[in-house]
Design the sequence.
């Protein structure tokens, strides 16, 4: 069975897992385009749709939600281990 | 499309007809709670403030209690004072009387003891109840209905199912002449560019940006303290577990609950809009403080989206719980009224869910009780303190 990922906005470089995904599961992104997911991704969590270099914007809902803190590979789980925002907390990460 | 409510002398329509017992100071809390427990159907606005405050902090307490006690769902008020507090019982009673509502006052030090005040309060409360129980619902226009748009216990389903459903409901309500207010300024960081672009004019756009910037400055100061570095997260553990990583991600999902209508203005805490439409109210992000502001600001119904699940309710307004998370809906069926999970599994369109939610709002406005009311949940009343 193909697992579903939702890309909310066409500008997004992450998609939302609409069910739990295990490494190697076949996934479709918003009904078109396959993605090989590298990590276990819980329901509702994010997967990178492309390689995202450190310091680069992570985009969801068509807007920046934070910056990559390390290099993120396409298909990786994106969460607090590789994404942070300094909005409202200047100089803090994580 | 109308609803049935209680016509108030101040021109508003209530969707409930509550007798509320309001202590003006925390010292009257026990007496107020005991009175409420002895008068079925009455509500107590319990709080920990009312004395030893100065300046804006005391004013914020005063106007929050006055606006809450004169909000549309309130039919009558019993004020409970201690007698020596800074926020005087007479000030609250005068504000209630000016709104045309019946009001009585009991002062503990004048009665002689808490037990004597309880006895006097029950007598006065039952008298007020007899006064309001003969009132009947009448047909009311949607222009007199304001819905509070709240979210809490956010997870990743909030931004893709529950909040968009609430936004669609809000759009439909406003296009039919009604009003909606969203709040929680701390949870808008990262979405201000979108909100400002939806303002009715440049002035409102600038106000939206400055309101959010002021809150961000406060948060940046508070989180910069090294001693409390371990307390510097801007979102909650459950948000992280639910797949939300940053405050900006939470904000961008959050603003979907405010639909797509133009934003007519920025309201202060508990301030009432002067014309129908969509408004932003500047409130803290804490659910109880936010809902208190929304209700004090005239919202008769609150719709509360939650992904993780929350049981809370308001003593002043029905709070309709909505989740987009199918697991949360089945696990918390005791507390949650409405599922928007069909949007995620593809069994319901956003348009259908929004229309279904609007019908639910109008039924609740006309008297249908929500689960939090059946269970007596009343956690969503809190008087905010002015931040130093």
Sequence:
């Amino acid at each position: 069975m193909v697992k579903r990922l939702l890309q909310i906005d066409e500008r997004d470089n992450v998609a939302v897992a609409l069910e739990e995904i295990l490494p190697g599961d076949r996934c479709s992104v918003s009904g078109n385009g396959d993605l090989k997911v590298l990590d276990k991704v819980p329901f509702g969590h994010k997967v990178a749709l492309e390689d995202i270099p450190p310091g680069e914007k992570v985009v969801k809902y068509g807007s920046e939600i934070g910056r990559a803190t390390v290099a993120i590979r396409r298909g990786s789980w994106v969460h607090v281990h590789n994404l942070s925002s300094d909005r409202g907390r200047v100089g803090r990460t994580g | 499309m109308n609803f049935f409510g209680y016509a108030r002398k101040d021109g508003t329509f209530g969707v409930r007809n509550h007798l509320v017992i309001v202590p003006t100071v925390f010292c009257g809390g026990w007496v107020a709670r005991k009175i409420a427990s002895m008068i079925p159907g009455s509500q107590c606005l319990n709080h920990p403030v009312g004395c030893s405050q100065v300046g804006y902090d005391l004013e914020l307490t005063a106007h929050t209690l006055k606006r809450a006690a004169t909000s549309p769902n309130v039919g009558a008020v019993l004020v409970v004072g201690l007698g020596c507090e800074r926020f005087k019982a007479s000030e609250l009673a005068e504000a209630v009387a000016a709104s045309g509502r019946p009001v009585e006052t009991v002062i503990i030090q004048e009665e002689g003891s808490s037990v004597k005040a309880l006895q006097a309060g029950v007598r006065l409360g039952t008298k007020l109840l007899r006064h309001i129980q003969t009132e009947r619902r009448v047909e009311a226009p949607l222009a007199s209905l304001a819905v509070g748009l709240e979210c809490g216990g956010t997870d990743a389903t909030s931004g893709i199912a529950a909040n968009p459903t609430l936004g669609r409901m809000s759009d439909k309500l406003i296009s039919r002449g009604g009003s909606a207010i969203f709040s929680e300024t701390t949870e808008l960081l990262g979405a201000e560019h979108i909100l400002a672009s939806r303002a009715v004019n440049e002035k409102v756009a600038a106000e939206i940006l400055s309101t959010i910037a002021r809150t961000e400055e406060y948060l940046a100061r508070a989180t910069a303290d090294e001693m409390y570095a371990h307390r510097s997260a801007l979102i909650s553990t459950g948000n992280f577990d639910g797949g939300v990583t940053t405050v900006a991600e939470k904000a961008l999902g959050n603003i979907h609950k405010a639909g797509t209508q133009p934003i007519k203005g920025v309201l202060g805490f508990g301030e009432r809009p002067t014309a129908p439409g969509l408004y932003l109210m500047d409130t803290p992000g804490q659910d109880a403080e936010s809902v208190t502001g929304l209700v004090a600001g005239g919202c008769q119904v609150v719709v509360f989206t939650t992904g993780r699940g929350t049981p809370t309710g308001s003593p002043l307004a029905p709070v309709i719980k909505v989740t987009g998370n199918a697991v949360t809906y089945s696990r918390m069926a005791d507390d949650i009224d409405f599922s928007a999970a069909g949007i995620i599994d593809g069994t319901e369109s956003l348009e259908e869910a929004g229309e279904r939610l609007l019908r639910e709002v109008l039924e609740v406005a006309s008297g249908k009780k929500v689960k939090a009311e059946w269970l007596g949940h009343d956690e969503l009343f809190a008087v905010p303190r002015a931040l130093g």
Notes: Chain B touches chain A at residues 155-157, 159-160, 186, 189-191, 193-194, 215-216, 219-220, 223-224, 229, 232, 234, 240, 242-243, 245-249, 252-253, 307, 325, 344 (CB under 8 Å). The first helix of chain B runs from residue 29 to 38. Chain B has a mean pLDDT of 96. The CA atoms of residues 343 and 349 of chain B lie 6 Å apart.
